[in-house]
């Protein structure tokens, strides 16, 4: 049961940062989606509903001591695999990907929940291996543990979410005390191998387990006009996004006034490219302010992880922080044209029911560890 006296541990800066991001996100979403449907508030209303459902889920997570989650890590891991496997069998297909399960009233995207479930199950897995992650052999098992859901997500195909799982794994291995030099070598080696594999694919025809459009997107950001179609192919998203952000200037052109957004030049403006709307309509100064809010939330997560009463709590918060940090860094990098387009939404801003619910549940885990950072003395 939830003890009311635990509220004295509440991190108000963290909560305030999250509320501010949600509120600003709804305002920007309204401008980004006003001309998509006949009702200009259609996506805002739906997003608000998902936020309310997310708050219910967050309170439910808070009502259970996070230490109890250790008892359910195996059922949660199996449930995660079953949901991801079900997508391959009965999944709903759209825009060349099969990532959703049609529940009639809602298109459930299991890969969004897979991230939060992986944080919980991997925290329990690593908690039992404290001090036992010092050599190459020790690190093989955690990578295999995450490989199963990761491969299932890659088959959808959803490269962006698969990369998020890797970011969660690296972040949580670091928090667990794994040899950071080995982690750095694995990360650097992975980047080098990926670059060599792409070079071999485009110059020598080396087959890779990715769709053609995914591989083109991985390299086209280097010169989006060189996409074989004069910038109207795979480079189109990046070009339009850069134009939108560049035209915003210091203070932006104003909400509902951005030509790139309102004239539909910018694709996916209310989902993956909503940060471009921020840049065009709110301008550089306010964009920096929003990024500062994200930094505040991430900083408070790291602080909460550091104050956790045990390693399991620190791992939970470390996993959520890794997930949010990767989402924010890559989404901003994609929209500004310095990273490949991998289809990663901006947390608490981009429209999406599954993503909002999963993020709110993850934030509930952070608050759970925050509130229970001290043992109650009677």
Automatic annotation (TrEMBL):
What GO terms describe the biological role, i.e. biological process, of this protein? cell division; cell wall organization; peptidoglycan biosynthetic process; regulation of cell shape
Q: Which organism is it from?
A: Moorella thermoacetica (strain ATCC 39073 / JCM 9320)
Name the record gives this protein: Peptidoglycan glycosyltransferase RodA
Under which pathway is this protein filed? Cell wall biogenesis; peptidoglycan biosynthesis
Q: Which protein family is named in the record?
A: Belongs to the SEDS family. MrdB/RodA subfamily.
Q: Gene behind this chain? A: rodA
Q: Which UniProt keywords apply?
A: Cell membrane, Cell shape, Cell wall biogenesis/degradation, Glycosyltransferase, Membrane, Peptidoglycan synthesis, Transferase, Transmembrane, Transmembrane helix
Q: Which InterPro entries match?
A: Cell_cycle_FtsW-rel_CS, FtsW/RodA, RodA/MrdB
Tell me the membrane topology, using the record's own terms.
Multi-pass membrane protein
Lineage of the native species?
Bacteria, Bacillati, Bacillota, Clostridia, Neomoorellales
Q: Which domain of life is it from?
A: Bacteria
Reported function: Peptidoglycan polymerase that is essential for cell wall elongation.
**What does it catalyze?**
[GlcNAc-(1->4)-Mur2Ac(oyl-L-Ala-gamma-D-Glu-L-Lys-D-Ala-D-Ala)](n)-di-trans,octa-cis-undecaprenyl diphosphate + beta-D-GlcNAc-(1->4)-Mur2Ac(oyl-L-Ala-gamma-D-Glu-L-Lys-D-Ala-D-Ala)-di-trans,octa-cis-undecaprenyl diphosphate = [GlcNAc-(1->4)-Mur2Ac(oyl-L-Ala-gamma-D-Glu-L-Lys-D-Ala-D-Ala)](n+1)-di-trans,octa-cis-undecaprenyl diphosphate + di-trans,octa-cis-undecaprenyl diphosphate + H(+)
List the GO terms this entry assigns under cellular component, sorted alphabetically: cell division site; plasma membrane
Q: What EC number(s) does the entry state?
A: 2.4.99.28
UniProt key word Glycosyltransferase:
yes
* Bilayer-spanning residue ranges: 12-32, 47-64, 76-94, 100-126, 133-153, 159-175, 182-204, 283-302, 314-339, 351-371
Protein localization = Cell membrane; Membrane
GO function term, MF aspect, one: peptidoglycan glycosyltransferase activity
The question of whether Membrane is a record keyword is answered with yes
Its top-level enzyme class, in one word, is transferase
């Amino acid at each position: 049961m939830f003890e009311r006296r635990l509220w004295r541990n509440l991190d108000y800066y963290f909560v305030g940062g999250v509320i501010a991001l949600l509120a600003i996100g709804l305002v920007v979403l309204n401008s980004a989606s006003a001309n998509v449907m006949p009702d200009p508030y259609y996506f805002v209303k739906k997003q608000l509903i998902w936020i309310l459902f997310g708050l219910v889920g967050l309170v439910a997570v808070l009502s259970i001591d996070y230490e109890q989650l250790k008892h359910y890590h195996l059922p949660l891991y199996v449930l995660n695999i079953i949901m991801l496997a079900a997508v391959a069998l009965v999944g709903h297909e759209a825009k060349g990907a099969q990532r959703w399960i049609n529940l009639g009233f809602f298109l459930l995207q299991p890969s969004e929940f897979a991230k939060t479930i992986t944080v919980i199950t991997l925290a329990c897995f690593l908690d039992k291996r404290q001090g036992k992650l010092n050599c190459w052999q020790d690190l093989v098992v955690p990578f295999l543990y995450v490989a199963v859901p990761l491969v299932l997500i890659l088959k959808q195909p959803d490269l962006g979410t698969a990369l998020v799982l890797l970011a969660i794994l690296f972040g949580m291995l670091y928090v667990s005390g794994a040899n950071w030099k080995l982690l750095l070598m694995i990360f650097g080696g992975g980047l080098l191998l990926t670059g060599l594999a792409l070079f071999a694919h485009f110059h020598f025809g080396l087959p890779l387990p990715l769709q053609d459009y995914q591989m083109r997107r991985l390299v086209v950001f280097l010169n989006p006009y060189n996409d074989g179609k004069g910038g109207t192919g795979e480079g189109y998203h990046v070009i339009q996004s850069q134009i939108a952000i560049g035209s915003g200037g210091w203070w932006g052109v104003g909400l509902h006034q951005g030509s790139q957004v309102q004239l539909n030049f910018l694709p996916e403006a209310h989902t993956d490219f909503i940060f471009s709307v921020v840049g065009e309509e709110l301008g550089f100064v306010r964009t920096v302010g929003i990024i500062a809010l994200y930094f505040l939330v991430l900083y408070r997560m790291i602080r909460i992880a550091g104050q956790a009463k045990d390693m399991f709590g620190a791992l939970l918060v470390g996993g959520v922080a890794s997930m949010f940090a990767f989402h924010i860094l890559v989404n901003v990098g994609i929209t500004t044209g310095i990273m490949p387009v991998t289809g990663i939404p901006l947390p608490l801003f981009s429209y999406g029911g599954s993503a909002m619910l999963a993020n709110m549940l993850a934030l509930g885990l952070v608050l759970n560890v925050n509130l229970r950072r001290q043992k109650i003395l009677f």
